[in-house]
Write a structure and sequence with these properties.
The protein is an alpha+beta fold. It has a domain at 15-52. The chain has three helices and two strands, in the order E-E-H-H-H. The chain has helices at 34-41, 48-54, 59-62; strands at residues 19-22, 25-28. Strands 1-2 form a two-stranded antiparallel ribbon. The protein is flat, with a radius of gyration of 22 Å. It starts with 18 loop residues before the first strand and ends with a helix.
C-alpha cells in the first residue's frame, strides 16, 4: 500500500460558502453587503462554561 500525497492547485479547489443566523433565519454571507460582512468578522465568540466561571462571585464576597 502506497501513501502518496494528494495536492490540489488553487484552480481545483471549491470555495466554502459560510452561512450565519441573522434576525431569526439563516443567510449565506455572500448575500451580505460590505457593512454586514464587516460586522460578522468583528463578532467575538465565547464558550458558556468559561464565561460562567469568570463571572462567578468568590465565596468570600458572596456572604456580604
Amino acid at each position: 500500500m502506497s501513501t502518496e500525497t494528494i495536492t490540489l492547485q488553487d484552480s481545483e479547489r471549491q470555495p466554502c460558502e459560510i452561512w450565519t443566523r441573522v434576525m431569526g433565519y439563516h443567510r449565506p454571507m455572500s448575500s451580505f453587503n460590505i457593512g454586514k460582512q464587516g460586522e460578522f468578522h468583528e463578532r467575538r465568540y465565547f464558550t458558556e462554561t468559561s464565561t460562567a466561571l469568570s463571572n462567578a462571585v468568590p465565596s468570600s464576597q458572596a456572604s456580604r
